[in-house]
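Box 3.1 A note on notation
Throughout this textbook, protein chains are presented in two layers. The first layer is the amino acid sequence; the second is a token string describing backbone geometry. Keep the layers aligned when reading.
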Amino acid sequence: MAPLSNVFNQGPKGDVCKGLEKLRYTVLVDGIPSNNDGMSELRIYIWLVLLSAPPVPTDRYVDLVRQGPSPSYAKIRNDTFRTLATDPLFRRRVTESSLTRVLNAVSWKLHDAHEALVNGWQSPPSIGSKPPLSFSGSPESKAESPAAQRHAREMDSEAATSTTAPEGSTVSYVQGMNVLAAPFLYAARSEVQAFAAFNTFINNECPGYVRGGSMDGVHRGLALVDKVLSIVDPKLFNHLMDCGMKANIYGFASVLTLCACTPPLPEVLNLWDFLFAYGPHLNLLCIVGQLILIRDQLLASPSPNQILRSLPALQSAKIKAMAISFIRKIPNEIYDEIVLHAK
């Protein structure tokens, strides 16, 4: 297979869908080349393509910054100083001021969209709708496997359910968005790139995580983590349930931040390459994969909450392999819930 740089630089050569599938598969098989710190010249550009994030003119981002504090500014400032505070790689590359500006700009965008909707200045936006060239491949096979057919159903389901925003919905800043934004800023070569990717991601891929302050999408995701664990490892699931350890006790941050809360940061970036290639919904399977990696410890412990209080360091390669292996075990109706849980 051609190196990722060649696949990316040469473009789709006419057939955009096939070109995207080739890009996704190359990311899955070869990964995105990076150094030991997780830095890569290609990563942010590949993320922008996989997220279908349109370019944002610099002056438009500057205008948002010049608007000053958004209605959520106090919440943002209360969170930014503690974002990945113990990660030396992040602290060395990303300043608190930069993170604050990006979060405040995104908050303004969310606020302005809501005001326009409430005041009837525009028709309801397709908050949660997936761009037509978004995640349509299967990490299991490039051919028309059952998983590939399942992904085709995903697209049909999303098209049917995401033409308008849910009535009364409000997408706004919530605690945890600071950690979710952090990898974008670390990988990006400018604040504008980070803003473009993060803003697209929040609005298109996981609006349910930040809608209305209730974070319904996160709670749906947590319930699905329990469901998936019960399917792929009933023994471990029963042990955790006997100990009162539902996913909502240990997994909230992992669902909300796509595991960005668990170091090391270079492993988070590798995991996100996979999630952006084949869909952020697969993060739920990755969380279950983390549990399976420490299965023996959890089963041997009468108090697994002590272990789950702080999940061990991410091992992205092992977690991705486990997540892919789970797909065929999950009934179609539950997998459809997984796909749509964050919308």
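Residues 96-118 form the longest helix (23 residues). Residues 123-138, 141-168 have pLDDT under 50 and may be disordered.
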